[in-house]
Amino acid sequence: MAISMSALNMIGNTPMIQLSRVVSKPGGGILAKCEFMNPTGSLKDRMALEMIVDAEQSGKITPGFTKLVETSSGNTGISLAAIGSIKGYDVVIVTTEDTNQEILQLLAHFGAKVILTPVGGTAFESLRTESQSLYREKAARMVRNQIAANIVKADPSMYMLGQSTNPANPRAHEQTGREILEQTNGKVDVFVAGIGTGGSLMGISKILRKANPDIQIFAVEPAEATLDSVDEPTIYGIQGISDGVIPAILDLSKVNEIIRVSSAQAWHMARRLAREEGLSVGPSSGANIWAALSVLEKVGYDHSVVTLLPDQASRYFSLGFFESDRNPVREEVSYSKN
User: Fold this and answer.
1) Of 75, 178, 182, 273, which has the fewest CB atoms closer than 10 Å, so is most exposed?
2) Model confidence, pTM
């Protein structure tokens, strides 16, 4: 194995594992790409690097002068902070005041300036008064975006990358798709991925569909915060995928079906992945595998189902949901081994 001259060279080319224990029946099974093995521990490293390089090449940002601003409550902020530090940018991350401590500590660890926004108070409640369709997560996102926009407007050295609208986001994951094709020898019948910004779902599926026009694409969203929801969600515990907002780069016409996974199901499966497969991954990974299992039962065990393990478990320990008696939602779960 060659020596890397920079952590940037370690982004991508992540391994893939065939799950052998959570899938009990023989056949094509579930192949999971281990995106938690990127340098900062998540698939967002790919997108963060692509967005920065794209902005550099188009002359929009300059190391040592431009300060990068982004709204993020998790992995994107961490990736931008780390990659920005390597490339010579100060990074400002706007996030909510209730962001879990591991995320805040990692942001500080990589040198980012963190601006915390309220999940209550006048600005927050005025948004919810204007539109009854804005539940907590949507209102919190709008407050973050407005504060970030004000920061950029007030300082010409600030530049916002805009992960939810930036075409460099899905473009970064076209490479992920090419890696999947190489690792599977082109044998992919089904692809399953969570809806976050839509970048990984759109970028990977674009490449896989070129190789196999008959591939089926399944998107994953939290049962408590669906894209068509107008009601206040119940307890929502799958960080990293949809908060009920349809991202600009998401094209649902490219998706065969949306699978809804509850928080309890996602965390239950994340525990199983740790205790049966030895994979320390977060709740979005649990959601992806839960959905992949349901799809596998539908299409048949002779099909090859590919999904992602987006990030590490370590940034969620303070939430307590990995403990078997502390599901975020009390409900029965199938695929059950405690």
Assistant:
1) 182
2) 0.89
For residue 103, give Cα distances in angstroms to 73, 110, 134, 198.
8, 11, 25, 21
Domain residue limits, the chain: 7-37+175-319, 44-160
DSSP letters spanning 136-163? HHHHHHHHHHHHHHHHHHH-TTEEE--T
Burial (CB count <10 Å: 0-12, 13-18, 19+), residue 92? buried
CATH level 3 topology of 44-160? Rossmann fold (3.40.50)
Q: How confident is the model at residue 98 (pLDDT cuts 50, 70, 90)?
A: confident
Alpha-carbon distance 322 to 197, whole Å? Answer: 25
Tell whether the torsion through CA atoms of 41, 43, 46 and 51 is positive or negative. negative
Verify whether residue 44 is a known catalytic residue.
yes
Residue by residue, DSSP assigns 25-89 as S-SS-EEEE-GGGSTTSBTHHHHHHHHHHHHHHTTS--TTT-EEEEE-SSHHHHHHHHHHHHHT-
**The domain defined by 7-37+175-319 carries CATH number 3.40.710.10:** no
Contact status, residue 336 vs residue 272, Cβ threshold 8 Å:
no
**DSSP states along 158-186:** EEE--TTT-THHHHHHHHHHHHHHHHHTT
| C-alpha pair distances (Å), 166 with each of 130, 169, 172, 197, 328 | 28, 6, 11, 10, 32
Mean pLDDT of 281-310: 95
Return the structure tokens found at 291. 């959905």
Q: Distance of CA 131 to CAs 71, 142, 193, 230, 242, Å?
A: 22, 12, 30, 10, 19
- Tell which residue, 54, 84, 55, 57, has the closest CA to residue 72: 84
Q: Is 72 a catalytic residue?
A: no
Closest CA to 61 of 78, 82, 43, 84: 84
**Distance (Å, whole) CA 125 – CA 138:** 12
Of the residues 284, 285, 294, 304, which is catalytic? Answer: 284
Q: Which residue has the higher pLDDT, 141 or 105?
A: 105
The single residue of 33, 42, 44, 242 carrying the catalytic annotation is: 44
